[in-house]
């Protein structure tokens, strides 16, 4: 198996739920593979999005880029439908005073999943937008 970014629309991945959307910066930008595009939220919290991989994937590395997020929680599901999520990762992110937060999570405990439910909690500042990108490196099980 080859190590790829399995969180790309070109790999068949979809954002099937997002709690907010902006016409210029929709949730689908999270998975388009372009570092210049992003998802903008409404500024209210908590926010969440669900990513569907359509097949089981083995996660080796996550890279999350964000602004003004205090707590990040990622849940995973191996079900054929986006149900029965179990908590996988929860992290308090470092406040970077308006600078990009780069959070890299290595697969010390690998996750095989079909869905990720990503929750964003307790923004440091109430701003009108938050920018998001999410990369998942691993293997697609066929």
What's the CATH architecture name? Sandwich
Query: How would the global form be characterised?
Result: globular
Number of helices: 0
Rg, Å, rounded: 14 Å
The figure for the number of domains is 1
CATH topology: Jelly Rolls
Low-confidence stretches: 122-132
Broad structural category: mainly beta
User: In CATH, what is the class?
Assistant: Mainly Beta
Following the backbone from N to C, one meets helices and strands in this order, namely EEEEEEEE
Instruction: Note the beta-strand portion.
Output: over 45%
Proportion in helices: under 10%
Taking the alpha carbons of the first and last residues, their distance comes to 10 Å
Q: What's the story with the biggest beta sheet?
A: 8 strands, antiparallel
CATH superfamily: Galactose-binding domain-like
Q: How many strand elements?
A: 8
Round the mean pLDDT to the nearest integer and report it.
76
Keywords: Calcium, Cell projection, Cilium, Metal-binding
Subunit structure: Component of the IFT complex B, at least composed of IFT20, IFT22, IFT25, IFT27, IFT46, IFT52, TRAF3IP1/IFT54, IFT57, IFT74, IFT80, IFT81, and IFT88. Interacts with IFT27. Interacts with IFT88.
GO molecular function, one term: metal ion binding
Family: Belongs to the IFT25 family.
